[in-house]
Amino acid sequence: MKLFSFKTKEQMVHIGIELDGLKYDFTRIWDMFKDIQGKHRFPDLYFMQVMVELGLFNYDDINEVISTVRKLRSLDDLKIQGQIQFDVPVARPQKIICLGRNYQKHAAEFNKPVPKEPIIFAKMTSSLIPQEGTIILPRNVGRVDHEGELALVISKTGKNIAESKAYEYVAGYTIMNDVTARAMQIQDIENKMPWTRTKSFDTFGPIGPAIVPTKLISNPHQLDITVKVNGETRQHANTSQMIFKIPELIQYISRHMTLSPGDIIATGTPEGVSELHSGDVVTVVIDPIGMLENNVVAE
């Protein structure tokens, strides 16, 4: 089971769901579920952000909706036909928190020490683009790198979350490419300036294509990450190599700020980052989430 956002022929944003390799319009399934159960009891559900905020993004609730509708009718006419125009899965996260140097070999490739505590920084939400969106290389910023990462979406509000409770606050997992203006970042670090601008150019936040509910990924620290540019492997690692694991990250971040439904945490990139050029196609693959693919063009 994977959930994603897509645009209909009428350019309306709907929620899609992939079941057994087939893609369906979950927004329409939800509308039918409302009719069956009584409309007054259930809200409209068009954006996945709303689904997360309402606490409906979990395997059991989604499965109940699908099962209820299937008992009364076939879903065949709700299949999504033709090519899908994806949208970002979470359209309006309150914040995007990213991890720096969370893989030892990535720290080593920049001759940096392994951090003693998580290094966190913000990426602006205006940087987000969906599956098959275009990464635009800004003028006069020098080298720009790909950074493939496992990301998670927060399910409910939490502050000072204990590590033992961390997964209760995760709605699901997705893929993020933390595109970075590397030359500018190095310059900013040398000048003791923050990284924010180097991470937050428009289009520097490819995310998707889908979110997999937490219950369906039993161990998020046993996932292979592969990044390819024009078919050539540049990054390949396993999330078991993270320095700070997800419970520790959630505990640490929530100690400093309240986490809210829809917030995105990108867990850091492994070694092998490299420069992107106009005309490149960059793909990030994490099974069982899928493949995030984006073209690269110069501004």
Describe the structure.
The protein is of the alpha+beta class and about 300 residues long. The protein folds into 2 domains: about 1-85, no CATH class; about 90-299, Fumarylacetoacetase-like, C-terminal domain (Fumarylacetoacetate hydrolase, domain 2). About 20% of the residues lie in helices and about 30% in strands. Strands 6-5-16-10-11-13-7 form a 7-stranded mixed beta sheet. Strands 8-18-17-14-15 form a 5-stranded mixed beta sheet, with no helix packed on it. A hairpin with a 2-residue loop joins strand 2 (about 15-20) and strand 3.
CATH architecture of the largest domain: Alpha-Beta Complex
Structural class: alpha+beta
| CA distance, first residue to last residue | 37 Å
CATH class category label of the largest domain: Alpha Beta
Total count of helical runs of at least 4 residues: 7
Strand order in the sheet with the most strands: 6-5-16-10-11-13-7
Helical fraction: 10-25%
Spell out the CATH superfamily of the largest domain: Fumarylacetoacetase-like, C-terminal domain
- Measured by DSSP, the beta-strand proportion falls in 25-35%
**Cα-atom Rg, whole angstroms?**
19 Å
As residue ranges, the low-confidence spans are none
DSSP E strands, number: 18
N-to-C order of helices and strands: EEEHHHEEHEEEEEEEHHEEEHEEE
CATH topology of the largest domain: Fumarylacetoacetate hydrolase, domain 2
Average of per-residue pLDDT values: 96
Shape: globular
